[in-house]
Design a protein that fits this description.
elongated, single chain, ten-stranded mixed sheet, 2 domains, Rossmann fold
Length: 308
């Protein structure tokens, strides 16, 4: 039997409960996985308190870390009683991103679970939040938990784009559906698949037209629509998704997915993270646009295959 899989839960340095804690515990129990809970502590006021000497400051820091460690242990104890193997850790570090990535490299995890920290648009424009950094750089499935109505998801949606013109991501949609199916089976949840297609994002010049109006008034648009539908159905069928659970909806992907999740009380949406370089990276991906708008939690898959 292979080594037991592990989830990593990153918790707040403020010793606050969140839906992410309950979600991580429920997933670990349902999948018979271990759970590693880690807090990356750093309190600006404590770290820069100039009114005390360095030795006293160090004692304050040690005391806070120890209190947090005990807090984590108090929350881990009930989980151990129900059979979940739980380990806890507290690390004092100002910038946790690199520490998180190092942890994931040294201790392979099935997924990283974290409560989504809401940031204003102005704040996101001024600096890049940790959650966005993780979204771009986390090498394992990343589960941002928000609006969790129940610990274990019951309604899951996978978002795919089978008509992606970049061959770099060939097979990525299958990977998204495999991960979504695995999650749904673990949680005994329903799984639907959505392809939100937006013809307005397609350049008419790609199909030999000088302007978009000529393209959309021609039969080429219908031909493209039919090809998209065939690609979507083929993808869904080879991954065992029944026809009644396949949904091809025209519109802006961010708006389509958000509206669908809200209308059908979706618990988790599984999406792929597409890498961006240069100006495209500044613009961001669909999942970045959705992160703070979705009425449910998000499970993000990286396109890179991991090396064990």
């Amino acid at each position: 039997m292979s080594e037991q899989s592990r989830f990593m839960l990153v918790v707040s340095p403020l010793m606050e409960n969140s839906p992410a804690f309950d979600r991580a515990a429920a997933l670990a129990k349902a999948s018979d996985a271990a759970l590693h809970i880690v807090a990356f502590d750093y309190l600006e006021g404590l770290a820069t308190a100039g009114m005390v000497n360095e030795q006293a400051l160090e004692q304050m820091r040690i005391g806070y870390v120890e209190r947090h460690r005990q807090w984590l242990e108090d929350h881990a104890r009930p989980l151990r009683k129900i059979g979940v193997h739980v380990t806890t850790e507290v690390v004092w570090v100002e910038n946790p991103l690199q520490e998180i990535l190092i942890h994931l490299k040294e201790q392979p995890m099935a997924a990283l679970i974290k409560a989504l920290e809401y940031e204003s648009l102005l704040s996101r424009l001024m600096f890049t939040p940790l959650d966005i950094h993780l979204l771009r750089e986390c090498p394992v499935p990343l589960h941002f938990v928000s609006h969790a109505q129940q610990a274990l998801p019951r309604k899951i949606v996978a978002a795919v784009d089978p008509f992606h013109r970049d061959g770099q991501y060939e097979g990525f949609n299958d990977r998204i559906l495999r991960e979504a199916s695995k999650l749904a089976n673990t949680c005994n949840a329903t799984l639907d698949v959505i392809y939100a297609h937006d013809l307005s994002s397609i350049g008419a010049d790609e199909f030999g037209f000088d302007n978009a109006s000529a393209f959309f008034s021609s039969g080429k648009a219908k031909t493209l629509f039919d090809a998209q539908g065939d690609a979507f159905r083929e993808l869904a069928e080879r991954n065992g998704i029944p026809a009644e659970n396949q949904h091809m909806i025209m519109g802006n992907p961010a708006k389509v997915l958000s509206s669908y999740a809200d209308a059908y009380n979706i618990d988790v949406i599984v999406m792929g993270r597409v890498g961006h370089r240069g100006l495209d990276r500044l613009v961001g991906s669909t999942v970045e646009h959705l992160l703070y708008k979705m009425p449910c939690s998000v499970w993000v898959i990286s396109p890179e295959e991991l090396v064990d």
